[in-house]
């Protein structure tokens, strides 16, 4: 009987020990699983986010390509989008030879110098219309021939008065035009508020001078066209009284480097000669 009880106790003790081991193993396994859960988070707990593209606005220094239409020709021109119209005109002056002050640019209307290409909505491929004249176009109006140049050089060498030179006699011999403005000898007056009219050019056609002081321009108008000359493009102004009609002058506006590039105007009222020279050559503020 004592043996049976001893065996029973041993079995009970062994069972208790095994249960303890199993229990410890369970705790151990559970701890490993918890550690695994903490060290390796599943995708369902922390969702992945896809990278998105961020659109950046166009840079103000972006260069755009436009087409400039001038004299029925198209020119590809590149310029920064933040360029002003004034800056763009200077660029066109270098490319096409049209002085910026003689340019008019149109894109859905007349463009102003203080506007920028981007603010107007001009984008790649836009067509901009250019209206303007080169200085060569202006000089062509005076139609200077090789014979005229030779006569001018000859007259210069002998210091012959302008009104006696053959090149001018063709116009002066016809006498003053009927609608010429009154001339006054030995008097100096400021420019009138109206254009100077009734005068003639070298071809004998009527010419009118309009002084746009606010724009620093002189407008030469004939029946056919009007040329808008920047004051700075006129290199010099020469004049002499007409013999027998000293109340009027022969006047030459020098548009180029030589005497052959002068635009001649006849029957200019004498009282305005000094004012014209001051206005064209840079002293116009006193008349404004």
Automatic annotation (TrEMBL):
It comes from the Eukaryota. Keywords: Signal. This is Ubiquitin-like domain-containing protein. GO terms for molecular function: cadherin binding; RNA binding. It comes from Ignelater luminosus. PANTHER family: UBIQUITIN DOMAIN-CONTAINING PROTEIN UBFD1 (PTHR16470:SF0). Residues 1-15 form the signal peptide. The keyword GTP-binding does not apply. Residues 64-131 form the Ubiquitin-like domain. CDD domains: Ubl_UBFD1. Pfam families: PH_UBFD1_C, ubiquitin. InterPro entries: UBFD1, UBFD1_C, Ubiquitin-like_dom, Ubiquitin-like_domsf. The keyword tRNA-binding does not apply.
């Amino acid at each position: 009987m004592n043996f049976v009880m001893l065996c029973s106790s041993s079995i009970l003790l062994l069972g208790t020990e095994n249960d303890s081991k199993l229990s410890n193993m369970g705790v151990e396994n559970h701890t490993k699983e918890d550690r695994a859960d903490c060290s390796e988070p599943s995708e369902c707990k922390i969702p992945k986010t896809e990278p998105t593209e961020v659109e950046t606005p166009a840079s103000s220094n972006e260069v755009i390509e436009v087409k400039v239409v001038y004299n029925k020709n198209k020119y590809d021109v590149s310029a920064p989008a933040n360029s002003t119209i004034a800056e763009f005109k200077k660029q066109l002056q270098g490319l096409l030879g049209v002085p910026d002050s003689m340019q008019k640019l149109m894109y859905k209307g007349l463009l102003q110098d203080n506007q920028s290409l981007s603010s107007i909505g001009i984008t790649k491929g836009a067509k901009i219309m250019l209206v303007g004249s080169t200085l060569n176009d202006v000089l062509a109006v005076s139609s200077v021939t090789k014979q005229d140049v030779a006569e001018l050089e000859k007259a210069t060498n002998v210091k012959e008065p302008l009104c006696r030179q053959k090149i001018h006699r063709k116009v002066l011999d016809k006498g003053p035009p009927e609608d010429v403005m009154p001339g006054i000898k030995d008097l100096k007056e400021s420019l009138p508020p109206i254009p100077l009219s009734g005068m003639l050019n070298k071809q004998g056609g009527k010419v009118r001078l309009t002084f746009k002081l606010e724009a620093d321009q002189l407008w030469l108008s004939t029946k056919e066209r009007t040329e808008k000359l920047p004051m700075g493009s006129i290199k010099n102004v020469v004049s002499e009284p007409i013999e027998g009609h000293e109340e009027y002058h022969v006047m030459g506006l020098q548009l180029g480097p030589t005497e052959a590039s002068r635009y001649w105007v006849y029957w200019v009222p004498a009282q305005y000669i000094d004012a014209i020279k001051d206005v064209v050559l840079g002293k116009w503020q006193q008349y404004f």
